[in-house]
Every structure is written in C-alpha cells, then in structure tokens.
Design a protein that fits this description.
The chain is α/β, with parallel strands linked by helices and 342 residues long. It folds into two domains: 130 residues, 2-Layer Sandwich (Nucleotidyltransferase, domain 5), CATH 3.30.420; 172 residues, Nucleotidyltransferase, domain 5. The chain is built from eleven helices and ten strands. The strands form two sheets. The protein has a five-stranded mixed sheet with strand order 3-2-1-4-5, with helices on both faces. The protein has a five-stranded mixed sheet with strand order 8-7-6-9-10, with helices on both faces. The longest helix has 27 residues. Bound molecules: 5'-O-[(R)-(carboxyoxy)(hydroxy)phosphoryl]adenosine (KG4) and zinc ion. The site of zinc ion has 5 residues, from helix 4.
C-alpha cells in the first residue's frame, strides 16, 4: 500500500510516499527555518503562509521522486494534531482535498505517533511493544508503545519540553535558532563540570520531569555574570545544561525500564538528534542489556515519511478521516483524532 503523506505542524512543509509503513520511496522536506531564524523562533502566521505556498510543490516533488503517478497512491495522510493550528490546518486540508480529488481514503495522523513511527522506517524488524522517549520541541514523554495504535503515557514534562528548553537556553546564550543543534555544537567544546545546575524532581511522580527550573538557573547565571561584568563561559554552560537535560531523561528512562521490564528502547523527536543523548542512550542500553532503536538524524526532526509510516498502521486499525475531519492544536497521543469532537 502506497500512502502520500503530508506534514505541516510547525516550520517544515514535508511530503513523502511510504510503502506498507516501512519503506520511504521519497521524503521531501522544505524547511522555513531560515525565515524564522530572523525572529529567533517560529512566527505562526508566517509558518502557515509558508506552508500554503509550498505544500502543492512539495507534494508534487514527493510523487516525482517516488516515481509515482497519482493513480499509484492508495491513500493520503496528513498530520491533523498537535501543532501550530494555522500550520496544521494547511497540510490537513490539503491532504483531505487531495484524497477527495483522487477518490482515496484520508488518514489523519497524530504528529507524535508519527515521530515514534520514524523507527519503523529505520528498523524494519521493530515491532511493539517497546518503550519510547519522545523529546521534541513541543513534547517530552515516556511512552509505552503497546501496539501500533495503542499507547500508554508513563511520564511527561510538567512544564517545558526538552527541545523548548534547548531553544530558550540557546537564545539566552546568543547561540541562535533552532537552539538544539547550536547547544549541541557549543557543548562539545565545553567543560560540563564548570557550572553546577539543579535537576528537578516532581514530587510523587518519579517518571515525570520539569525543565523550567533548569532553564531559569541558566538564565540567572547568565544575568549575574553580565551584571558583574564577568565573561560567561558559554561552552561550559551549554555543556552543563545539556548534561542536566540528558541525565534527567536517562534517569527516568532507566526507572521506566525497571518498572515495565521493557527490553526494547526507542527514541523519537528532534532532540533524539542530540549527540550527548544518543551516547547516553547507548550506555543505558548496554548496561540494561536491551535493544536500542535510534532513528538516523534525518528521521529525528519533522518529516512526512514518519507520518506515512504511522498512517499505514492507522489505516489497518480502521482510523480513517470522515469528510468533517478537523485538525487540533493539542491532542494526547492516546486520543483518537478521528473521533475527537470539535
Ligand atoms: O521534533 P521536532 O523537529 O519538532 C517538533 O515536533 O517540535 O523537534 C524540534 C526540536 C527543537 O526544539 C530543536 O531545538 C530540537 O528539536 N533539536 C535538538 C537537536 N536537534 C534538534 N535538541 C538538542 N540537540 C540537537 N542536536
Ligand atoms: Zn515534531
């Protein structure tokens, strides 16, 4: 089964053709990152308009690269939640209209389910159940993937997502946008032991985490240094911050593995590209004797191939979009976005 998938939930307009949930025949990503970098972050209306201008061209390119005609497509999928609503609406509506025009089913996909499904493209042998750390710009979750469309949230952030914390700290350090890759690069040159940063624990919720205290500690350190006229060691501070984030995530993952007895561990989302996190997960998997699934860097960030992969399993579960299918700014990974009201 060949699915043409569309992704437009943030600042990437993407389209892909995916076969049977496991093979990307094309994966086109048109990034607006340079536009938003001028503002230090994503400007929602500019993102929506950018998707509007790019989506048809990107979809055509995905078909061309996959060497598919429209008649070769069996269904159309699009991210319908969560994300910047104006941005999600563009791709979702385009996908719905295209499905209608082709006379094919429309499959709405939850963006975070898609991030997890990036692992199915990278690892054809991977099947649920497995434990996943989802760490993106908008979400940080510990999820037990019980089945392809069956998820249990074990823990999550109480405030900032991991990627959001990276982006905010990068701004304070004047490192630019998007912050994750910039902090990653700075941290490689820094001494993580030079600054001491706090690690938060959420009372009575050992699998939940919080990054706002850590972020505030970095901001305070930077301001105090400025007030005292001291030169901030940006590389060391980036390294200390990154280490604190990675330690926080890995501690919870280890606990979740012990609690669930999971023998397979996957990672998903933009922050899965972080070099220190990847190294720490390799260690964790080695120590715990479990299988580790880390998508290649190109499948960690937003893309449409991951949406096409998840769409295949949503289709098999009968999760199809009706003509009134809506898009949503927020939706839990456990929610059924085909039957959600509103
Ligand atoms: O999954 P994603 O592409 O979009 C969302 O669904 O949010 O994640 C984007 C996030 C951004 O916050 C970005 O700074 C972060 O992923 N990111 C990284 C790295 N590369 C991207 N964070 C840490 N280290 C990286 N190398
Ligand atoms: Zn994403």
């Amino acid at each position: 089964m060949r699915i043409l998938a569309i992704e437009s939930s943030c600042d990437e307009t993407a389209a892909a053709v995916v076969e049977d949930g496991r093979r990307a025949l094309s994966n086109i990503i048109d990034s607006q990152v340079e536009t938003h970098a001028l503002y230090g972050g994503v400007v929602p209306e500019i993102a929506s308009r950018g998707h509007m201008q790019a989506v048809a061209r990107v979809a055509e390119a995905a078909l061309r690269e996959a060497e598919c005609g429209r008649e070769d497509i069996d269904a159309v999928a699009a991210t319908c939640a969560p994300g910047l609503i104006g941005a999600v609406l563009v791709g979702a509506n385009f996908g719905k209209a295209l499905a209608l025009g082709l006379g094919k089913p429309f499959i709405p996909v939850h963006h975070i389910r898609g991030h997890i499904a990036a692992n199915y493209l990278a690892f054809p042998e991977l099947e649920p159940p497995f434990l996943t750390l989802v760490a993106s710009g908008g979400h940080s979750l510990l999820v037990m993937v019980r089945g392809y469309t069956d998820f249990e949230i074990l823990g999550g952030t109480r405030d900032d997502a991991a990627g959001e914390a990276f982006d905010k700290v990068a701004r304070v350090l004047g490192a630019g946008y998007p912050g994750g890759p910039k902090i990653d690069a700075l941290a490689r040159k820094g001494d993580a032991g030079k600054y001491t940063l706090p690690q938060s624990h959420v009372k009575d919720a050992p699998l939940d985490f919080s990054f706002s205290g850590l972020k505030t500690a970095v901001i305070n350190l930077a301001h105090h240094a400025e007030q005292k006229g001291e030169t901030l060691d940006r590389e060391a501070l980036a390294a200390a911050f990154q280490r604190a984030v990675v330690d926080t995530l890995v501690l919870r993952l280890r606990l979740a593995m012990h609690e669930t007895g999971a023998k397979k561990l996957a990672c998903a989302g933009g922050v899965a590209a972080n070099s220190a996190l990847r190294a720490a997960l390799e260690n964790l998997a080695g120590e715990e004797g479990c299988g580790l699934y880390l998508p290649p860097l190109g499948l960690c960030g937003d893309n449409a191939a991951m949406i096409g992969a998840q769409a295949f399993y949503e289709y098999q579960a009968g999760n199809l979009g009706a003509s009134g299918q809506n898009a949503y700014a927020t939706a839990e990974i456990t929610e059924d976005i085909c039957r959600k009201r509103g």
